[in-house]
Every structure is written in structure tokens, then in C-alpha cells.
Write a structure and sequence with these properties.
8-stranded mixed beta sheet, about 45% helix, transferase, Rossmann fold, Glycosyltransferase involved in cell wall bisynthesis, single chain
């Protein structure tokens, strides 16, 4: 008999439309798990806030996805009690061997409260010194919510049977007593990204893909691109990603107008997988100027596609990118150095192609779905031991 797995967490609300790194990671991992002979079934539970197109979808003979309405009020204060009750009903129905929570907040808490054989994956750590854009908004309510989430994260890490770190960096900041087993497993990039390699020569275009927030710092990237545009007038920048904060989006647009870059910078919101593949294929390099990261999925996808990466030396990024080999690393908020590294790749197509080839080789070793699924099943076996 093979394993029966229940995965709780962010998952695409509709096929081919991915919102953020966790959805990308789960939607890549699930079919790779289902392809294994030692896995009988994978059930995915995704809570939603009225934006799901269906309540149930089957994705192949082994995979089914349940979209349940999530608790709207007092989720954090009540420990997401209503969501927990719905999850337990599904557990009773599918009888999983392992329950896997895809983060260490409320989803991870529900996972470990549903089963003693719980696995949780750390996709970000709120209780570090870095403030969370999504939680602590400076208000009394935001500070309270932030404090409660931190308490939940600590409890999840203490009680989960297996804790999966997606980078060595988050292993270092998880300095709390963890009773279970800690393992390291990177997020996978889908086979469709590997299929883009080897990269072909491209126009002088740079790609940012991520949520428009101050943590991702697209405003700082725009400032650096203004310097790039002076050296390479034909250069273009494509900014792609969800835009949850309209005020921040307005700040980005205002900065573009001030710098006179409207004709050289394209802004797109959430795009489907086909469009993202096209954006990566067209880019000379993928750029992230974040102030804090764990292990961004977009970097793994770019490397899989044979693209060099320019990113900040924060969180787990230095574990993914070899400075001067598979891309460039810069300090956060160092706009001048960021601009210099982008120019190097824009004026030297052969350098970009060479770095991209090496990045692809690293991705083949670390970020294939098959390899990540193998490590994940090993983690499940530890949870069952």
C-alpha cells in the first residue's frame, strides 16, 4: 500500500494561474508526488474567501483538490477554529497517512492539529526581526495580529513531527526547540521552466516577477533601472506580479513618471503560467531587489530556464545564486551596484548566456520536481516512523 497524503495550503484557484511562490511550489510538488508508485493519493485542501471557481476538482487519477470557504472573521484570534473543524471532517473522509501544512502559520497549525503525523514547510518566518508586510501594518490591530501569528508559528514548530526548511537560512533563524525532525528540501521548479533551456539570445530586457510590496522593493529596482537606461537606452524592464496594495502600485507608477521611464517599463498584474513562461524566455536576466526573502521560487524557475539572476544578498538567496557564476548578488538598497550588474548582462549577451547555462546545471541538481518529491516522501516516512 502506498501513502495517502493530505496537503493543506495555498494552491492555484484555477489551473495555470499561480499567485505567488507557495502556490507555485505546491502545484509543482503535487503531481510529482502523485507520479510515484509509493503514493496512492494526494488530496489538497485550499481555503478561499469566495474567489474559488469550484468546490472540488480532480487532477488526474490520484489527485483531488477541495476548495472550502475559509473563516472570514477572527481567524487568528480563534485559531481558525471553523477552518480546523472543516479540515478534520476532510481528514475523517480521506484518512491520510500524513498531513502536510504548506507554511507554519494557520495552515501549518491546522495540519499539526489534524494529525500526529504532521509535516510543515517553512515558506517564511514572521517571528524574526523582519516585519511582515501582510501582518504588522503599524495599527494596534495589526500589531496584535502579528503577535498572535508569531505565537502560532512557535507552537507549530514545537509540535510538528517534521519541519521542512527550504533554505539553510531559515534553519538558522529557527532557533526554537523543535521536538520533531528538521530536514532541508528546496522548492521545485516545474518541468516547463526547464524546457526553456538553453536560453536563446534575447533583447535587452530585464524581468521582475513578484508581489508589488515594499519588501520586494520594485521602487528601488525602478530607481536602479533609471541608471541602466542612461547607459543602455534600448533596455526595457518588465514588472509582473500581484498588486494587493494599490497605494504602493501608485508609488511605483509615480516613480516611473518622475524618472521619465513610462515608455521603457511595462507593468502587468497577475499572469497565467503561459505568460510567465513567455516573460522569462524573453528576458536577458531575472532581477529581484528584495529587502528580505527565504528562497524565492522565481529564482529557481529562472535558473531552470537558463537565465542568470541578479538578486539581493538576503535570506536564502546566496544559497541559490553563486555570485559571478550563475548571476550576481548585491546588497539590499544598493541601487548603484544593482544598476552596474544589470548593465553588465545587458551589454554582454555571451556573458548572460554563459551564466544561464551554469544556472541551469545547478537547477538540474537541486530544483527538479522529481528530486524534491523524493526528498519530500523521505520526510513523510520520518513522520510515520
Amino acid at each position: 500500500m502506498g501513502m495517502r497524503i493530505l496537503m493543506i495550503g495555498a494552491y492555484p484557484l484555477e489551473p495555470g494561474v499561480v499567485r505567488g511562490g507557495i502556490e507555485s511550489a505546491t502545484s509543482t510538488l503535487v503531481p510529482a508526488l502523485a507520479a510515484r508508485d509509493d503514493v496512492d493519493a494526494v488530496t489538497v485542501l485550499r481555503f478561499h474567501q469566495g474567489d474559488a471557481l469550484t468546490s472540488y476538482r480532480r487532477e488526474g487519477p490520484k489527485v483531488e483538490v477541495h476548495y472550502l470557504p475559509g473563516q472570514r472573521r477572527l481567524r487568528t484570534v480563534s485559531g481558525s477554529f471553523r477552518d480546523l473543524r472543516r479540515a478534520r471532517k476532510l481528514v475523517a473522509q480521506v484518512k491520510p497517512d500524513v498531513v502536510h501544512g504548506q507554511e507554519i502559520g494557520l495552515y501549518g497549525d491546522i495540519a499539526q492539529r489534524c494529525s500526529r503525523q504532521s509535516v510543515v514547510t517553512v515558506h517564511g518566518v514572521t517571528f524574526t526581526d523582519v516585519k511582515s508586510d501582510a501582518l504588522d501594518d503599524g495599527s494596534l490591530r495589526g500589531r496584535l495580529r502579528d503577535r498572535l501569528i508569531r505565537r502560532v508559528e512557535r507552537r507549530v514548530l514545537r509540535l510538528a513531527k517534521v519541519v521542512v526548511s527550504i533554505s539553510a537560512w531559515d534553519s538558522q533563524v529557527l532557533d526554537l526547540p523543535i521536538r520533531g525532525t528538521r530536514v532541508s528540501i528546496p522548492n521545485a521548479a516545474g518541468a516547463e521552466f526547464f524546457a526553456l533551456a538553453p536560453s536563446q539570445p534575447t533583447p535587452p530586457t530585464l524581468l521582475f516577477a513578484g508581489v508589488f510590496t515594499s519588501r520586494k522593493n520594485p521602487v528601488g529596482l525602478v530607481n536602479a533601472f533609471a541608471r541602466v537606461h542612461m547607459s543602455v537606452p534600448a533596455a526595457r524592464l518588465s514588472l509582473v506580479g500581484p498588486q494587493p496594495d494599490l497605494n504602493y502600485l501608485a508609488l511605483v507608477r509615480d516613480r516611473l513618471r518622475t524618472l521619465g521611464l513610462q515608455g521603457s517599463v511595462d507593468i502587468s498584474g497577475l499572469v497565467d503560467n503561459d505568460r510567465m513562461l513567455a516573460e522569462i524566455a524573453n528576458a536577458r536576466a531575472v532581477v529581484l531587489f528584495s529587502r528580505q526573502e527565504t528562497a524565492p521560487t522565481i529564482l529557481a524557475q529562472a535558473m531552470a530556464a537558463g537565465k542568470p539572476v541578479v538578486a539581493t544578498r538576503v535570506g536564502g538567496v546566496p544559497e541559490m545564486v553563486q555570485d559571478g557564476e550563475t548571476g550576481f548578488l548585491v546588497d539590499s538598497d544598493d541601487e548603484a551596484t544593482l544598476a552596474d550588474r544589470m548593465v553588465k548582462l545587458l551589454v554582454d549577451q555571451e556573458l548572460a548566456l554563459d551564466m544561464g547555462r551554469r544556472a541551469h546545471e545547478v537547477a538540474l541538481e537541486r530544483f527538479t520536481a522529481t528530486a524534491v518529491a523524493e526528498l519530500t516522501v523521505q520526510a513523510y516516512r520520518k513522520a510515520l516512523a
